[in-house]
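Hello,

Our lab assistant flagged a job as stuck in the queue for most of the afternoon. It eventually completed. Since we weren't sure the result was trustworthy after the delay, we are filing this so someone can double-check. Below is the sequence as submitted and the structure that was eventually returned. Let us know if re-running is recommended.
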Amino acid sequence: MRIGDIEFGEKPVFLAPMEDVTDPAFRLLCKRFGADMVYTEFVSSDALIREVNRTMQKLAVCDEERPVAIQIYGKDTESMVGAARMAESAGPDILDINFGCPVKKVAGKGGGAGMLQNIPKMLEITRAVVDAVKIPVTVKTRLGWNDESRIIVDLAEQLQDCGIQALTIHGRTRAQMYTGQADWTLIGKVRENPRMRIPIIGNGDITTPERAKECFERYGVDAIMIGRGSFGRPWIFREVKHYLETGEYWPDPGFAWKMDVLKQETLDSIARLDERRGIVHIRRHLAASPLFKGLPDFRHTRIEMLRAETVDELFRIMDRITGTWGQGCDGSDAGNME
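-- returned structure --
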């Protein structure tokens, strides 16, 4: 699969852009575990052109994470063009436009998935951004606004005509938010459309290697994108890539190894922010990690872990978890995550 001049090979697996999740440290960790491309947190065009410091910081990318895409969102053509040029100057490989974020503070104001209610404006913005920059422009969107307007098959053609070089489709409507199951049927229909010439990237509910393989084979997508499935499990990219390449499961390195990966993720978060904010930032990863799923009588320990305020306190709890539930697991020490 190719986007512009970037060759990804067969069946690439991408890390989805996620607010307050895909910071530089997490992107590098996922890249280390095999993500073929990573995306920044989404960047508000209005905040970017006002040079809001926290938003400007989201543009920071490094060579170790390439290929990397910066994603922007907004509802005004002029600000999106200005933001696109500023983002391009930060040196990403790809510029992605977010027409898929369903949260009220974005979609409710007309940005993100809110654009699914104003297709002429969506297309105007897309054409203007494509014309404004020299790097490849891609789009990420949803099936439609709600079940009565699942318009993605026709919309995909319209976006392609605007000059985008790849399209990512999340298999839900805006009305669904993140509830229910992602419907890949229409993603497959977009890919089957003989008029589509650009790569189609599928997104939604990919949490196992088997599901990743099914999405490639059943729906014919050119790439897949993993979002929430990476929470507390950045090694999912290695699991999926190994399965796609060999048809076999990646040998489980063991509970202690995985816990050490989460510790490293915590330390990276603290190094980027500070101890207090870094721990707060990492809590959603720890809370969502499948590593703790099914552990008996774990509720109290989970609450204790998520209330920890210092790295020493948090690591003591994590070490206790490993000592209590991680004994007998196969796998090597996590000192070498390569």
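-- support follow-up --
The delay was a queue issue, not a problem with the job. The result is valid. The beta strands are 2-3, 6-7, 13-15, 38-44, 68-73, 94-99, 137-142, 167-170, 200-203, 223-226. The first helix runs from residue 24 to 32.
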